[in-house]
Amino acid sequence: MHADLIIVGAGMVGSALALALQDSGLDILLLDRGPFEVAPWNPAAPFEPRVSALSAASQRILERLGAWDGIRARRAAPYGEMQVWDGSGTGRIHFSAASVHAEVLGHIVENRVVQDALLECLAGSGVGLLPGIRLDGLRRSGDGWLVRLGDGRQLRSPLLVAADGANSTIRCLAGCATREWDYLHHAIVTSVRCAEPHRRTAWQRFTDDGPLAFLPLERDADRHWCSIVWSVTPRQAGRLMALDDAAFARALGAAFEWRLGKVLEVDPRHCIPLRQRHARRYVEPGLALIGDAAHVIHPLAGQGVNLGFLDAATLAETLLHARSRGERLADLRVLSRFERRRMPHNLAMMAAMEGFERLFQADPLPLRWLRNSGLKWMDNLPEGKALFVRQALGLSGDLPALARA
């Protein structure tokens, strides 16, 4: 079987790329190990533990791909404020969408909701869908790739895109080098119901153990629910995961300084080891890495999928422009244009998240004074905070057309 383009991984980022190229005239195959099934929506269903903080730029991409209406028809929690403070000092900073005359800073959306909305759009597209696929091998074949499937079938394409996540099979089979290290932290994720409403605010406290985020959720107009991401040492994670729900709720409330009152309910908890990973190159001849296959960052700002959506939109734009000029899409010179646009932005975001994580884990008194003074100083600079908000909203920077306001 032959295709002009094979995308491996039908998660949020791979599906977005396929939709962005659906009218390109290319013969596209989208492969995934799972089924392409959209479960019937139940508004009363429990929250999924994995959520994303979708930026305004990601929202614009999803709108233009036709998926945003499907997301809103399910559930998405907008937030217009962000409160960040140092639990070991007096430093704090507040961000507001109103500072740049915007309605929201973003939306907290369950990953499954985004995925189902994208799959609905794919069902009506011209993209070829191959579910339940297990990759058995990958090798160069002439000017392209030969992909061997677990059932014995073989696929050929001049261009292959790896969108198959942090533990990308394609990246490993192709021998793409990465830089990576363990954060020596685990993230506990779950959903909780608090005594007080979240006020459509994203809350983040930097504790001695690691950052703790309370991200607003909504179900049936109930604004007491939050998704939590609690980064702690592996030993602390083991202790917290062993607690019963009542004890965990008390520990969580204390770590959050009871900002939203008592934690009344706790959904099932999940513990995820945190690891930083970045591919040394995003492209080779006939191969491109996007999303978590190319870069995995600390979840403290929820920026991972936003970087992935910008990867997908930028790669689609690069390929469409090259096709309009009659260029060979698999040529390294074409694919390098995508890498040159995305790698600096991704590296800058990764460096910022790494810097925040290291600064707030620092114990020496001078560094504690520095971070508290810095937060207070920044909080009194409206222009500086507005610049940060505009960047987060996707109102500035080198954005692909799908993401521009």
From TrEMBL:
Pfam families, A to Z: FAD_binding_3
Gene3D superfamilies, A to Z: FAD/NAD(P)-binding domain
Domain FAD-binding residues, every copy: 4-348
UniProt keyword list: FAD, Flavoprotein, Monooxygenase, Oxidoreductase
Cofactors demanded by this protein: FAD
InterPro entries noted in UniProt: FAD-bd (IPR002938), FAD/NAD-bd_sf (IPR036188), Ubi_Hdrlase_CS (IPR018168), UbiH/COQ6 (IPR010971), UbiH/COQ6_monooxygenase (IPR051205)
Pathway annotation from the record: Cofactor biosynthesis; ubiquinone biosynthesis
Domain of life, per lineage: Bacteria
Family: Belongs to the UbiH/COQ6 family.
NCBIfam families: PRK05714.1 (NF004318), Ubi-OHases (TIGR01988)
Name of the molecule in the record: 2-octaprenyl-3-methyl-6-methoxy-1,4-benzoquinol hydroxylase
Species the sequence originates in: Azorhizophilus paspali
Lineage: Bacteria, Pseudomonadati, Pseudomonadota, Gammaproteobacteria, Pseudomonadales
